[in-house]
Amino acid sequence: MKVLFLTRWYLPYAGIFIERHAQAVSLYHDLAVLAILPSDKRSGMKPVVEPASGQNAFPVIRYFYRSSGCRVAAIAGLINNLRFLTRAFAGYSYATRHYGTPHLIHVHVLTRAALPAFLLKIFTGRPYVISEHWTRYIPENWGYRGVLRRFLTRLVVRRAAAVTTVSEFLKQAMQDCGLRHEKFIVIPNTIDTFLFTFSGKPECRKKKRILHVSNFHERAKNIRGILRVIAKLAGQRDDFDIAFIGGEEPALRDARKYASTLGLDSPLVTFSGPIAAEALAETYRESAFLLMFSNFESFSIVIPEALSCGTPVLATAVGGIPEYFSNGAGRLVAPGDEAALLETLGYMLDHYQSFDPGYLCSIVENRFGYRQVGRQFDELYRSVMNKKVPS
Which residues of 153-185 are buried (b: 16+ CB within 10 A; e: fewer)? Predict the structure, then answer.
């Protein structure tokens, strides 16, 4: 079956979880990815095409547009939608000419990316499914506002052949917003278990390493809360350090500055910025445990990445995390509870070696591996097409 991913998030700007969904789907179907992305550096109707190669056995077609500078939000939104739509139609035409007409369009991230799919269904009869990843439907990150947005979102969801979310939590949040569908299912994010794998722990470091990996969005990831607790922990013991990986400026600079105001400097606290996936996998393996103190999450892909490397996790019981997390994988605390985090950090530093790496790996392989997730999408696609189509 020929499948076209249509998304408003994709690498290099965001959306590694969408790339991994693409890798999972490509095991079963003939896939192309069409990404329409905002950019200050490039724009126009000429695509940037990344041919299939290596693990990405599918082409990626990127179109770029400049976000409107209009100060009137409604007008800027209209301009951005028109720029997105024109490139989406151009991209669909390009994909059809070069890779064949898709049987199915798979939209990632509402609402803008679903509009061209909705119109293509009207004009061509081509069905589409939607996968949502965004947390904007929850009160802590409320972004589902505006009469027009709500109307269009309900319209494209209602006309979709199916809707998926990465967690039961996100599904319920969308349904609470009035977004309902008879085929509304959960298909989780997927992990590259060949890259993120346990191959034995490196030789012990002099100090136990705590690891945090995120995009450093303060409202969600609560970096300042982590740093406040680390400052207290450093007053109690000196057998650890903590490495922060990820983040872009200015969030990364703000985190460094806040750490400095607490007296937290290298080598106790280090900030590395984004690193390559191979280096990240090795860092997971050499760390005592992963620490996430998020205020909200839809899934938190770094948690199964760490588990897949045999590394336990200390995280908050938010979003979809409790759906796949148990005490055998680490410990959960309540969001924002810095006293509980301080106490549990001490526990994890003393007991991280008691967690079985083989069990941690199996949690991920059995639920989030490429073949498992790809098979779920395969079954969904076939049910949507209502017939067997050769892969």
Answer: beebbebbbbbbbbbebbbebbeebebebeebb
Within the chain, strands assigned E span: 2-7, 30-38, 48-50, 60-65, 104-108, 128-132, 162-165, 184-186, 208-214, 240-246, 269-271, 289-291, 313-316, 330-333
Domains and CATH numbers, the chain: 2-190+369-385 (3.40.50.2000), 208-368 (3.40.50.2000)
DSSP state of 190: -
| Token reading at 179 | 């977004």
Q: What's the average model confidence in pLDDT over 65-71?
A: 88
Bridge partners, residue 65, by sequence: 38
Model-level pTM greater than 0.85?
A: yes
What does the pLDDT read at residue 389?
Answer: 42
Q: d(Cα 24, Cα 57) in Å, to the nearest integer?
A: 10
Rounded to a whole number of angstroms, the CA Rg of the chain reads 22
Q: Using alpha carbons, select from 288, 337, 279 the residue that is nearest to residue 310.
A: 288
pLDDT digits (tens, 9 = 90+) for 204-248: 678 999 999 999 999 999 999 999 999 999 999 999 999 999 988
The rounded Cα 86 to chain-centroid distance in angstroms is: 26
- Over residues 297-337, the pLDDT tens digits come to 989 999 999 999 999 999 999 999 999 998 999 999 999 99
Place of tokens 């008879």: 182
DSSP state letters, 335-364:
TT-HHHHHHHHHHHHHHGGGS-HHHHHHHH
